[in-house]
Amino acid sequence: MKIGMPVQIASLSAIPWKNGGGKTRNLAVEPKDADFDHFLWRLSFAEVSAPGRFSTFPGVDRSILVWSGNGLLLHSKNAEVFALAPEAEAHIFRGEDEIEATLLDGPTIDFNVMVRRGRCTAVVCRYTGEAMISRRAHHSFFLCAKGGFRLLFPTKQQCLIHAGESVAVSHLPEGVKVVPCATEASMIVVLINLLETIPLATD
Fold first, then answer.
1. SS3 11
2. 19 and 108: one domain?
3. Could you say which of 13, 86, 155, 188 is the most buried, measured as most Cβ atoms within 10 Å of its Cβ?
């Protein structure tokens, strides 16, 4: 297991969306510096300030949730509408789906996790209280949206993460305990596993 240094999410550089309709900020991409058509997995923050269409990503599975703001209404081609609300769990959909987004009440920043279908999987969860993470992961990311959290690893290592920070952990073992450091705390955890047979390190 390797724990990375905290990353200040506000310091991430902005680039245009794939369809040019807005701006996004990459937190992590594999392979590093891969473009929109060649990543294996990708984590990013999209700034949504006006109604518009999502970029399409054929062959990609997507998970999306609200990072800041009041959320979005997602309109699918078959007329289904999904309300992406603050503090809600991730909404999962296929990257080839045609989605139109409208704002619920002002600009919103959403957090996106994209994985190449058939090559890797992602589990995305939001935590607001103390919990135990029972899954292993080749790649994991802990993103604190509010308050702060202490991460207690079964290896006896510890890590403190503050609001606005992200910490990456490679070869995460099962049994990580997350403990909030404030009464109002919120953290997103992303667990990515490759579908190839790659042993997970335990120390």
1. helix
2. yes
3. 188
